[in-house]
Automatic annotation (TrEMBL):
PANTHER family: SERINE/THREONINE-PROTEIN KINASE YRZF-RELATED, SERINE_THREONINE-PROTEIN KINASE YRZF-RELATED
Keywords: Kinase, Transferase
Region (Disordered): 72-109, 372-428
Pfam families, A to Z: Pkinase
Protein name: Protein kinase domain-containing protein
Basic and acidic residues biased stretches: 390-412
Protein source organism: Gigaspora margarita
Ranges annotated as biased composition (Acidic residues): 376-389
Amino acid sequence: MNSYIMSRANFVATIRSLSEEPNKLSEDEETELYAYITDNPTKLDDVEFFLKLCGTNNAKLLYLKELSKSSEREREREREREREREKERREREGREREREERERGERERERLTLQELLQTVLPAPETLSIKTKSTINAATRKVPNKPVLAWNDFLTEAFDSAKGIDTNKRIYSRPNVTDEELLSVEDSVVDLFLETMNATNNQRLTRLSTPESWIKRYAFRDIKGQPDVIRCGAVKVLLLKNASLLLSVVEIKTEQLMRTLVDDRTELFNAYNIALTAKDDGTTAYTRHQEIIRIVRQLFGYMVVNDLKYGLLTTYIRTWFFYCKDDNSDNIYISPTVHINQSHTGNSASFLECMYYFENISTTNPTLHFTPLNIDGDDNDDDNDDSEDKNDKDKGDKYKDKDGKDRDKDSDKDDEYQASSSKRTLGVITRNQSKKRKVKLNDNEFLNSMKNYKRNQFSFGDVLGNGRSGIIFMAKLHEQVGVLKMVDLYKKEYLLQEILNEIKIYLGPLKEIQGIYIPKLLKYGVLHEAFAFLLTSFAGESFADIRNITEKEKQLAIDGLLAIHAKGVKHGDIRLENIVMERNELTGHSNVRWIDFAWSEMIKNSKNLDKELSELKRLLCVC
């Protein structure tokens, strides 16, 4: 860099020393020379070398003048090259514009009207062979012997609805749905269903004044139960992932499973009604009949508990549309089977046109209206008469509450379960694996003894959180207000086992400390023959949400766990989220209680209880 500066300085000095010569450089020549050495710094040494070879000033001037001319010619050539490059750039941009306009025109020609979109025939994918299993293998419950009804006019109404579909506006993309997909487990069916809806019907739904979409259940915060897919709405497209309106629910099963239950020659509503009358002969056929009942009741439960008139059951390859009326929410209407590759003909609607009709009617009037029931015990349709068990109860059982007053151990006698005299056990989970068969048997007996409550006996309040079993709500049942946890009867076996275990823990070993160290069990039972539930008293916020926990409050949590251990129960899930507290700001008094006994078990080994206590102390940072 320094050598360049020196060479440039020498070059400038040489030009200035020649400024008095008669044949001196013109201003333009000097400008060209300065531009030359600026653009070509590596040639400065060569220029300096040639200047030294020139014997006279005149020779130097002649050399510099020639150099300035070559610089001017080079700069002109560069300008010419730049003009050529600019010309090529303009020509390239012109060709690009022409190509984009041509492609835009082609795309416009490829755009579909709504009618063309909905008359697209979708391919039926292949299914992989998988091992199918029952929706639920554990505790089972008898359902009401009430047949479903055929929604016979669904296909006709869908076809008539298709006549009014727009045939002019070409605004929809051609769906890219191939026949290369392979369906295996249930998750693959969920994914393909949503992909197909995004490529087809969601194109229309998202353009509505109140946008809608087929989407996974997590988009609607207040969803009750665990349907695989929902259709929801929002004020803006961007808010669909946090939707404010629930329109319909979808339950998805694999075609491999449904094929073993309902063949193409049988309609689902007929298969269900036949299943209701089947006798328990211990055969595979009876098991399949029960599976059909559970699948139908599962979807129907999602509809009713979410106050919805409409739902659909699908394997992707086959779909059945569900509907229930306001006047009797126990009546289920099921459409004939609609196949994914069903095409539009002169007298039938395509699959997507059926979806279009279903979307329209469930948008117009999605909500199922109930007449509230507010009288405790008004449950005349309860199929499980537990009056014999109720007569066996110890009505004199009392315990001391936190204020030292005598209280009934369970004010809700109609909800208390006791097995027959030959089996006085609630089947609480133990570590003894030899008792597994007995526990499962007791689960069946316990579940069948539980009272069924109708949807109109509940009032749902605010969402409190989201647990393993689903959304936790504040709820009111027969004037009892508390925290509601519910689990599908027919979805995930382990969750059903857990909630049954929790109810038994409340009713059995921990009954005497309800309202003291644990919440009060207010109600438990079955909701609309679709969900097992328990309703407990509200006990405050969790330790996980409270920052300034005092040492006294930590000790209350320890005392609570010790009280649980004193009953021979291991909690099984020591987390801050499972310790809740209510503070009285006026008195400064705090009530600390333990919740969530899904994993709790009766245990005799005191070392395991001590280990759990140590785990709590570490969590609370208590020595």
